[in-house]
Design goal:
mainly alpha
């Protein structure tokens, strides 16, 4: 799957799934993110930043403070994220991505420098490849 199509598929899946870890397509999103991260780690490794640092950099570049992001999350939640007390949920990542016009993957730790992804709380073993492409199956988009 071409890179732009893969990114578009991830964005569509994030929109569809949100924070619903029990959504039928959640495993597809995790699998796809794992594959993208592994490919990028092998073929185009670059130093990455933690999601909270990405947020901090973007806020600085845009001259924003925590209260300015109230369309993405409450100020207290942004503060907790920046101070490392909370991670960035998929829903907040989606909102931040729209706000800054970047990929939500930046806020979820799915960067080129890391092969880790947001895992289920029970941290199951890696899942086999899905037998279909969400974009071509008509389930998404």
């Amino acid at each position: 799957m071409p890179a732009c199509r893969t990114e578009a598929t991830i964005e569509i899946l994030l929109d569809e799934i949100g924070d619903d870890e029990s959504h039928p397509l959640a495993d597809v999103l995790d699998y796809l993110a794992d594959r993208v991260a592994a490919y990028e780690e092998e073929h185009a490794p670059i130093p990455g930043a933690e999601p909270k640092e990405v947020l901090r950099i973007l806020m600085n570049q845009h001259g924003l403070n925590q209260a300015d992001l109230d369309d993405c999350a409450p100020q207290g939640r942004i503060s907790d994220i920046l101070n490392g007390r909370r991670g960035i949920s998929k829903e907040i990542a989606r909102r931040l991505a729209r706000r800054f016009d970047v990929s939500a993957a930046l806020f979820l730790g799915w960067t080129r420098s890391t092969a880790r992804t947001v895992r289920r709380s029970n941290d199951r073993a890696p899942r086999p490849a899905p037998a279909f492409c969400p974009m071509e199956s008509g389930i998404v988009g």
